[in-house]
Design brief:
Layout lengths: L1 H20 L2 H17 L1 H6 L3 H27 L15 H9 L4 H8 L2 H11 L5 H8 L3 H18 L7
Length: 167
Amino acid sequence: MIEQLYYDYFGKLTLYASAVLRNQTRAQDAVQDTFHEAIRHIDILMGHPNPGGWLMVTLKNKIREDQRAQRRDMMRCLSLDTDLLMEPGGQDPRLERQMNEGEPSALEKIQTTLTPEEFLLLKRLTIDRASHLDVAKEFNISVYASQKRLERIRRKLDQLYPDRRKK
């Protein structure tokens, strides 16, 4: 059943995910996660009156999860209050004050908390918006290992910024 659903819906789901995410490899990751959920919940899917609809709803949820995680990671890496200047080329008094007080920036705190490899992985996934597939190829690891490493990095950052932990 899963194989038939894959042949029937993979193209449609990938097209939809690509249109929403505007990144082919991230779209493929989301579709792959959708079929992984289908395998995990095969008993529900087999009894469902509209398996294609179930896959589409699951894909939409996966896309929302991906976008939410992307936004959360971006907020951790880029603090609009401390790391960016008000105008390109202009001076930001808050940044000057922070530099004079000797406090490290949010990015510096993250860099000192993470290993260089963890920081590079986080940067590639959040700032560069690379997919887990791309990062897995670059680091010569599996997609699952890339996802797991990001999960561990997030836990480290949750300890660094406990006030930003989701409630």
